[in-house]
Specification:
Helix content is 62%, strand content 3%. The chain is mostly helical. It folds into 2 domains: 9-240, no CATH class; 241-513, no CATH class.
Length: 563
Amino acid sequence: MSEIQNPLPREVADAYVDELIALDPVTGTYLGVRASSSALPDYSPAGQEGLAELARRTLAGLEAAEARPGADADIERRCARLLRERLTAELAVHDAHEGLRAVGNMHSPAHSVREVFTLTPADTDEDWAAIAARLRAVPGALAGYRESLGLGLERELYAGPRPTATFVEQLAEWTGPDADGLTWFEQFVAPGPEALRAELTAAARTATHAFAELRDWMAEVYAPTVEGAPDPVGRERYARWSRYFNGTDLDLDEAYAYGWAEYHRLLAEMRTEAEKVLPGAATPWVALAHLDVHGRHIEGVEEVRVWLQELMDKAIEALDGTHFDLADRVRVVESRIAPPGSAAAPYYTSPSEDFSRPGRTWLPTMGLDRFPVYDLVSTWYHEGVPGHHLQLAQWAHVREDLSRYQAGIGGVSANCEGWALYAERLMDELGFLADPEERLGYLDAQMMRAARVIVDIGMHLELEIPADSPFHPGERWTPELAQEFFGAHSSRPADFVESELTRYLSIPGQAIGYKLGERAWLLGRERAQRRHGDAFDAKAWHMAALSQGSLGLDDLVDELSRL
């Protein structure tokens, strides 16, 4: 496993990262490893098994490492907890052959192949030569992915029809020409050096052709085969994915009930705030619809990018030294516009290990050029500062005190999304959302996360809607009811709502981690406050919490309570 004699858990974890990067150059690029820039992973069944075998060897090495002197130190213990939990969850997904039906509108090998180019270094001629090589590697990567999906069809392991249809639409957008007659990859290489123009253009066309072949196969072979298969995954598959995204085995019925409790709490608070925005509004969403027309807006795509950058810069200035202690390199974050063909939800990408690539927030415009402020402020506290950026950039900053695994690739979705939702709430607690428009937008975003718990668990497990629900009481959830409920309890436009429901069907168990993760962060803070009493220092606690790396939700509460 490692050339280090008698390694401790952090050394086992770092050896795992080294071997993983060799198998998965996309992960290498996310970490900022330039040597990864010219290659792509093997997404075939054999490639998937290679990753699983590495995980098994690592778990065996971890067991031996935990028996060695020094392994009980907090810094080693936390790393061991995370590594065991993550690899065990990943193996459970692999052993259930979920990689043979990895189709969706946000996360698939095809999405990884396209998106990694937006993070690949492109500063020098050498960088662009590596990009050309990576573009030429696209056909092999997509062939391996198609081999896996084909084996899934043979074994009747089907992706849902709705995610499949959306994926085909995305592939068509990625491979179709824009107004200038260029495909996405041709647009991407346009800024490249003139000396490599012919090579880059040819490589971009090679990559586009490979995606077009995948598009045609998905439309002509895969989609007709899975037609009629259920979109919901059922309790067994859902529990497996929930463990993967949340880092713990949840009581799904309790989580469903919690989602409804939060729904009722937030609805009452939203009604109070809506009265300030539009007195007499029948529902909070009537008030939000009023803001869509009459509220504050940002006009223009570049203008909204700049406005979001300024919002994050102002948050850093206000929070640093008062509620957080931020290193200079953590203070840098960039606002970007997401490439065409992205899903509707904003997202964040972490800095490289050496911070040569900063953390970045990404706004999908969905073809719009007018953006309501109420829908942006708390969202960028979530994606940027003090949300994803402060957590993930701080992990990178303290990487040498943790391990590359904890700081870079061992993230638990619910830990990260829970922190980001906690960050929104923290900004409300600190008074940054005093404006009624912005606070109603924040509550709307909170309600969206509560609705995610309800509909994600409800439709995949086909649970009954409670008798005290104002929406179809006593009926059982279907994707159609879920979309109707989500649309009725969100200010988001119809295309966003449709994209969200497809996302929940594509990655079951991920969407519930926002609210359940926030609950874990709040519980950990509450227990730490009780332990310290009047001596509790919120700034010190935040920095210690952000510097311990990732953990699954049960482990997270335990470790936060100790700080």
